[in-house]
Structures are given as structure tokens and as C-alpha cells.
Amino acid sequence: MSDMSWLDWPFFDDAHRKLAHDVNAWCEQSLGDVDHHDADGACKKLVKAMGQAGWLRYAVAGGPGGAWGGALPEVDSRAVCILRETFARHEGLADFAFAMQGLGSGAISLMGSDEVRQRYLPRVSRGEAIAAFALSEPDAGSDVAALACEARQDGDHYVLNGAKTWISNGGIADFYCVFARTGEAPGARGISAFVVDAGTPGFEVSERIDLIAPHPLATITFDDCRIPASQRLGDAGQGFKLAMMTLDIFRASVAAAALGFARRALDEAVARSKSRRMFGQTLADLQLTQAALGDMATAIDASALLTYRAAWMRDVKKQRTTREAAMAKMTATESAQTVIDRALQMFGGAGVVSGMPVEKLYREIRALRIYEGATEVQKLIIARELLKA
């Protein structure tokens, strides 16, 4: 197990420390036999197991009296980050399954009507319904305001037409939070959000997408897909704002997942350096190895400080953390890529053998530098926030 002394930092309270130890113990007992050859089946099993264990209750808001199923009245960013970091350190698909339950239902927690919240969120928290977040399009990824999928109001219904792609949980989700152009104003101000059940006529999973690290991913299409107006989240035209609010909550947790991958890579590298004999000594005796390990450990701590600062600011200070979350996401994902690459290098040829822990980490980390805002976009966000001052 990785060193958990970071839990002594003042960002956390005793409840967070207990959560970290409890989920780590659960991971050690429950995540030893995940089948990566069947990503769909594995994610379904993981969602069910996490729901039964109570971890998914931290991915959704509890609402008044806990009516929405969450562990706390609002989503606690530090708890989400702790859970994602721990899951990622043990098993990448576990992190994915947990994260998508939160991101896929986050818009409902934020702006769903009480009826919609009570219909979906308790099932998400129990692992009985799989959620998805449908924002990206073939020609609108980083530039969300350019999306073209449209929703036309027709009486007390909306009719959706268009396509979404790179949709995590696409093909296995029970419902999708979909962002579509409703035309109240040009650009970002003319977008609204809706909950669309997977079995709705006119909805189709048109293509499954294979990744270097197996995750359920798909392109989905809407062809005169009619949904009740009551399935809209928030007011018409608030979709872009809602998407950004949702990403602001969960962007710091992407950094936490990268931390988990990086910590596991450092653990593997340290163990390898101590056991690998070469030139009459161990790899750890070589100064080049020691320098690399020093760089790796420092990069991880720097990333952790940025990550939990952002989460703490949101939870405790109740401050908007667009800049801080972007800094954390950029630094943690880029640093984790470097840490994992160095760890793999210490394994030599064994590091690229399929199924080796460092080989799996090498494939897992790459996507984190892209999704929920690529590194280049994070730099623009940080600069934009600075220039506002």
C-alpha cells in the first residue's frame, strides 16, 4: 500500500481519513479479479459492488433528509477525490465506474427537479442504474459551445436530433444527461440539458469505440427522439452553465485519479529498484535511479497539494475553483504520465509485457490528459482566469 501520510494534511477531517482507510481495505479485498477482456461486464459488476458497499453514495448529492440517496447533502469534492485516487491506485476500471456514476448524474444533482432527482439519484447511489454524461460531439469536443445536436420543443415534449461521441458508459448506461442546442440565444447561451433513458424510441448506440485501455465508450445518435419537457434539467438555455458547473465539481477528481495511477507506479518502481540486480548491485543503488525516484515522489506530492487544495477550497471555502481545478488537472495528469513512463523504464522489457501493472498504467493514464478538458485547454482556462483579475 502506498504511503498515506498525506491524510495528515490539514485539508482533511477525521471522516475523510476514515473513508480513505475503509475504501483502501475494501479495494484490497474486492478488486483482485477484474476481467479486462469484458469491460462492459466488468463495469456493470463494479457499479453493483460499489453500490452495495456504499461508495456510490458519495458520487451523488443527498438532498433534503437524504432523499436523493447521497451520503452527504451535497457532493463533497474531497471525498470524491479520495475515492477516485484509491480506486485508481488499485484498479483503473474501478475508478472509471465510480467517476461516471458521479459525472453522469452530476447535472441531475445540480439542477434536476425534485421528481427527476428522486427518480434517478437513489438508483445511481445503489448501483442499480448506470449513468452517462453526453456532451462531446464529432465536431464539438474542447469547444463545447459549438455543439450541433438540437432539441426542438413540441408542446410538452422536446424532439432531439443529432449525435454525441466519446461517451463514457455508452452502450451500457441506463440513462444519459444530454446537452443539446435549443436556440434561446447564439452560442453557449442557447444550450439546454435533458435526461434521456436508454430505451427511448429514436435513441441509438450507433458505434462502440475501442480504446487502448478498455472502457465502455460509444457514439450515440438521436433521430426524432421525443422526451417529456419535464426531463429538462434547469431552465432552457442553462445547459452550458450546467455542463461547466458539473465539470468544475469533477475536474479535480480527474487529477485525483491521475494521482492514484502515479502512486501505484511509484510503488512498483521502488519495489523493482530494490529487487532488480545488475552490475553487482541493485537498481536502487544507482544514482540515476535514485534521482528518478526523487523526481517522481516530488511530482506526486506537488500534484496532490494542488488537487486537494482545489477540493478543499470548493468544500470548505465554498469558492469557485475553475482556475485551481484546472491547475490540478493539468499538473497531476502530465506529472503522472512522466512518473509512469519512468517506472516502466525501470522494468525494461518486462515493463511492456501485456498485463504487467506498469503496462496497464501506461495505457490508463494517456486518456486523462485529454478528457474533461485537454491539457492545452486547461492552460487557456488558467490564463483566462488570471486575466480577469
Would you mind describing this structure in some detail?
The protein has 389 residues and is an alpha+beta fold. It has ten helices and ten strands. The chain has a four-stranded mixed β-sheet with strand order 1-4-5-8. A hairpin with an 8-residue loop joins strand 6 and strand 7. Helix 1 packs parallel to helix 3. The radius of gyration is 21 Å and the shape is globular.
From the alpha-carbon coordinates, what is the Rg to the nearest angstrom? 21 Å
Mean pLDDT: 95
The percent range for helix content is 40-55%
The count of β-strands is 10
Helix/strand/pairing class, anyone?
alpha+beta
Largest sheet report: 4 strands, mixed
State the strand order across the main sheet: 1-4-5-8
| Order of helix and strand elements from N to C terminus | HHHHHEEEEEEEEHEEHHHH
Strand content: 15-25%
C-alpha geometry: globular
Q: Note poorly predicted spans.
A: none
Number of helices: 10
Distance between the termini: 43 Å
